Amino acid sequence: MRLDATTLDAPDARELASFYMALLGWEVDYDDGQWVKLRAPGGGATLAFQSEPLHRRPVWPTEPDAPAMTAHLDIEAGDLATAEAHALACGATTAAYQPQDSVRVMLDPAGHPFCLWTRPPN
């Protein structure tokens, strides 16, 4: 067995896939309208999106009785400020709570948190 994809639910799979295509520069590998799979130019595991009409935006940080984040993506960036500006231009928002200086927690258009991070200097 091998991991093929991480799949995120969204009200509109194509809309969320378009966001991640712009953010990461990945290409569509498969699209049937309700399920879209993106592949990195160099190959490897993929990122997929599934239309879920009843999708509820997760709340981060977690709050009682609110939909919780169950997973998030970690995206390494060379420069955190540049990566954050790019993510914002693609349609992300910056989360109100930021737990670390070397990480920027962002929210994609469907509300899924993802982390932009940089390696600390040696």
From TrEMBL:
Q: Which InterPro entries match?
A: Glyas_Bleomycin-R_OHBP_Dase, Glyoxalase_6, VOC_core
Leader peptide range in chain numbering: none
Protein name (Swiss-Prot/TrEMBL): Glyoxalase
Which parts of the chain are coiled coil? none
One short Pfam family name for this protein? Glyoxalase_6
Q: Which organism is it from?
A: Streptomyces solincola
VOC domain: residues covered:
2-122
